Amino acid sequence: MKLGPSLHRIGSDIVAVYLVDTSEGVTVIDAGLAGQWKELTAELSAIGRSLADVRGVVLTHGDSDHIGFAERLRRDHGVPVFVHAADAARARGEESTKPEWGGMRLGATAKFLWYALTRNGLRTTPLAEVVIVDDGDVLDLPGAPRVISMPGHSPGSIAIHVPVADAVFVGDALTTRHVLTGATGPQPAPFTDDPAEALGSLRRLEGLGATWVLPGHGTPWNRGVDEAIREVEAAAAAAR
């Protein structure tokens, strides 16, 4: 799916992966589920690219539904994978957390689990090697992605601002489709380690000016960062 001149999405509102395509090559933002590999290669072919054009993968955090095919790209194609230091051990499979699931609806939860199951979500290969990033880093990758630390969902959650795409990729710092309830619109994401910290971290995006706010789960949002933050805060307040 083409969202803009340099911006593409693969996957769905359940689990999404993004591509930034510039004259310098392709940057992949998150790596979804292992079984989305075919969608990656199909989208690259559709835009006249190949795996040889992928210069790097930037992970918003180290959860299994965001690292899916990253190790395959690194191991088989020499593509470096970037992750914040605080989530490096999680991405390497050395540690995991068990955050509360919270509220759920049977149909939406079953759809999420089925989607993950049918795309090898239970067979994720951890990263054998990662490149560490920190807050404020501007990476030498297509689109010059800038790292913004967003702790809360996980200690090393980050947002990735790519001005050439007029976009900020937020991973699970927020969601526009709650995978456990099916509720739509900007709101706090489930499976969050520290919900209060995650909500506070959103303020780090204020004034960024990006039109696109792109979560790991849900419909792409194109009404600006500040409006997305306002709606997440309203949803959080309503849920108290």
Which range best describes the helical content: under 10%, 10-25%, 25-40%, 40-55%, 55-70% or over 70%?
10-25%
The proportion of residues in beta strands is 15-25%
Report low-confidence residues grouped into runs of 5 or more.
none
Q: What is the mean pLDDT?
A: 96
Write a compact overview of the structure shown:
This is MBL fold metallo-hydrolase. This protein is an alpha/beta fold.
What distinguishing features does this structure have?
240 residues; alpha/beta; seven-stranded mixed sheet; four-stranded mixed sheet; 6 helices; 24% strand; NDM-1-like; RibonucZ/Hydroxyglut_hydro; Metallo-B-lactamas; MBL fold metallo-hydrolase
Task: Explain this structure.
There is one protein chain. With 240 residues, this protein is α/β, with parallel strands linked by helices. The chain is built from 6 helices and 13 strands. It has a 7-stranded mixed sheet with strand order 1-2-3-4-5-6-7. Strands 8-9-10-13 form a 4-stranded mixed sheet, with no helix packed on it. A two-stranded antiparallel sheet has the order 11-12. The protein is globular and about 50 Å long.
Fold topology:
Layout: E1 2-4, E2 7-11, E3 16-22, E4 25-29, H1 37-46, E5 54-58, H2 70-77, E6 81-84, H3 85-91, H4 106-117, E7 131-133, E8 146-149, E9 158-162, E10 167-171, E11 175-177, E12 184-187, H5 195-201, E13 212-215, H6 225-239
Parallel strand pairs: 4-5, 5-6, 6-7, 10-13
Antiparallel strand pairs: 1-2, 2-3, 3-4, 8-9, 9-10, 11-12
